[in-house]
Design goal:
By secondary structure, the protein is of the alpha+beta class. Helix content is 17%, strand content 39%. The strands form three sheets. Strands 1-4-3-2 form a four-stranded mixed β-sheet, covered by helices on one side. The mean pLDDT is 95.
Length: 126
């Protein structure tokens, strides 16, 4: 049943070499499997892949999120690696220093080298 199966994100990239460098160097993830068309990364006991396509970076929504503890520390580490967090100010979503807080969660969004939107999410905050 799907309730027992992990979800596997598949993220598009126009330039696979550039995307691989971003996930490796900026996010600190090690490639588990590499081919000319796809790179798979492991994170938190799951995998996700980044694949070559001319359609990378076109989605206007979050493609993958990491559930983290210590959001501020994670953000500081990623910022030290050159990651820039997005600022939003729209109905239902406002960030302050890159962080949105609502309903017991704190979230921060950033874009990868291809323009894909990614998220860090911390649950259980007041």
């Amino acid at each position: 049943m799907l309730t027992d199966a992990p979800v596997y994100a598949v993220i598009p990239a126009v330039d696979l070499a550039r995307a691989t460098a971003f996930y490796r160097d900026a996010l600190g993830l090690k490639p588990a499997v590499e081919s000319a068309e796809e790179v798979r990364f492991e994170s938190g006991g799951t995998r996700f892949s980044v694949y070559r396509t001319p359609n990378g970076g076109k989605a206007a929504h979050t493609l993958a999120s990491w559930k983290v503890t210590g959001l501020d520390a994670e953000m500081a580490d990623l910022r030290s690696r050159g990651v820039v967090f997005e600022e939003y100010d729209m109905p239902g979503l406002k960030t302050v220093d890159g962080v949105a807080e609502a309903e017991g969660m704190r979230c921060a969004w950033f874009k990868d080298s291809e323009g894909n939107i990614l998220c860090l999410a911390e649950e259980g905050t007041p």
